[in-house]
Write a structure and sequence with these properties.
Helix content is 32%, strand content 16%. It has 446 residues and is α/β, with parallel strands linked by helices. The strands form 3 sheets. It has an 8-stranded mixed beta sheet with strand order 8-9-7-12-6-13-14-15, with helices on both faces.
């Protein structure tokens, strides 16, 4: 007999339950532990006849093999659970696509936030996240220059380096002599045990000379500061969930980042917007920043097969997110997402090729499929977009490739690049991103 693979386990459970019609009302919940072992939880009224339950349990156990916890544990009723809320009301309980009345609770060690509900639909300050599935796409440079563009319009901006495992914002914008005393890693470690005070936050912020001479201000919150010590030891702790006895809930990285936004919003010199430069890849930082903060999220990509394949894995996963709902209501996560075409060749054919690639990617994954429309006459209709629809998440904001960008020295006022060069390469991105972050006009770019 061939060995059952991880990918086949959940569908095998669904097939066996479909072949053994349930005598029950209510939903089925499949719990998958950190090793991939499955337990099926049924309503209390399922198969009142114990012999029938035992027969199905035996079939599940035999079929699952190494992914079964044992014949007596593979099939349980809700009344058998020690903590019903931990399963039925778990923040990680998501509906399985294409399987009626069936839910999954996946016990992951990392990346748990991708499918959880946002902490807020609106962050305490206008907040934007730069995310990329792969590194080297110019994500940090684009956000630094966007901060400069917003400062030129009189905005007070805080740029936060969330790429904690490969920090880059400080090296791009700050001379080593201008680092603040501390950085984000210091703040997050203190947040593990208590709410950090405002004094520490101020010690993590420093004004950036790039905005000197503009009507606005840029402050940088780097990953670490001049007095930061034991950075790697701190990095190994900040992803840990902790239990807050006051609120009776677990507090993870996403919750602590929301605490940071709230504290920034209480500063006497309140910022107009927060720009978060998240790290590349399918990582806890990305999952917390992209899905939990209610931020505007810019998904940077190049027009290559590596990026498309990796984004496809993420988008297929996001289809099960609690914030993704058929019909795309106003609070749907997908309205917060926007593709950005990074380092794009300056040609109509290049722009059309990327637009088509992004449209196909979204149509194959995250856009509504009419065949998956919920039953009922009052069910919402599928949200559809044209290839060139400006409001569509898939339509990329363009950043043109310009070899001069790689030679920019943003730390040296005497060598700051000509704004006309920046606007030529980044103007489309600045305009589109600013419109999303500030729906009301902020004035034309100079």
């Amino acid at each position: 007999m061939s060995t059952l693979r991880f990918d086949q386990a959940v569908s095998s459970v669904s097939e066996i339950l479909a072949e053994s019609p349930l005598e029950r009302t209510g939903d089925i919940t499949i719990v998958r532990d950190s090793l991939g072992v499955l337990t099926v939880v049924l309503p209390d009224d399922a198969w009142a006849d114990a012999a029938k339950r035992n027969t199905v349990a035996e079939r599940l156990h035999d079929k699952l093999g190494i992914y079964s916890p044992g014949e007596k544990e593979v099939l349980l009723r809700q009344c058998d659970l020690i903590d019903l809320d931990d399963v039925i009301r778990s923040p990680d309980r998501v509906r399985l696509p294409d399987v009626a009345n069936t839910w999954l609770v996946d016990r992951l060690l990392t990346n748990q936030d991708w499918l959880r509900k946002p902490l807020s639909s609106t962050p305490p300050l206008p907040t934007a996240v730069a995310f990329s599935i792969k590194g080297g796409v110019g994500r940090t440079t684009a956000f630094a220059l966007w901060a400069w563009s917003l400062a030129r319009e009189g905005k007070n901006i805080v740029l936060v380096d969330l790429d904690l495992e490969a920090p880059g914002v400080a090296g791009l914008l700050l001379d080593e002599t201008r680092l603040p005393d501390y950085g984000l890693a210091d703040w997050l470690v203190d947040a593990l045990v208590e709410q950090p005070d405002e004094v520490l936050l101020k010690d993590c912020l420093v004004s950036c000379a790039l905005a000197d001479g503009t009507a606005g201000k840029i402050r940088v919150l780097p990953a670490f500061g001049a007095k930061t010590r034991e950075y790697l030891n701190k990095l190994g702790r900040i992803y840990m969930p902790t239990f807050d006895s006051h609120s009776n809930r677990f507090v993870g990285l996403a919750e602590r980042l929301m605490m940071l936004l709230e504290q920034l919003a209480r500063l006497p010199d309140r910022p107009d917007a927060i720009l978060l430069d998240a790290r590349a890849g399918l990582h806890d930082i990305g999952s917390a920043a992209v899905t939990r903060l209610g931020a505007e999220v810019f998904l940077f990509t190049r027009n290559d097969s590596q990026s498309r394949q990796a984004y496809k894995q993420l988008f297929e996963h996001l289809c099960m997110a609690q914030s993704v709902t058929f019909g795309m209501p106003d609070d749907d996560l997908r309205w917060k997402l926007k593709m950005v075409g990074a380092q794009q060749k300056v040609s109509a054919s290049s722009a059309a090729s990327l637009r088509e690639a992004c449209y196909n990617l979204w149509s194959d994954t995250l856009y509504d499929d009419e065949n998956s429309r919920p039953a009922g006459d009052d069910a919402p209709v599928a949200a559809t977009f044209g290839r060139a629809d400006d409001n569509a998440p898939h339509l990329p904001l363009a950043i043109q490739f310009d070899p001069r960008v790689g030679d920019f020295d943003l730390r040296n006022e005497a060598e700051q690049p000509d704004w006309r060069v920046i606007e030529t390469a980044f103007g489309d991105f600045f305009a589109g991103a600013t419109k999303r972050l500030f729906p009301d006009p902020v004035g034309a770019l100079s």
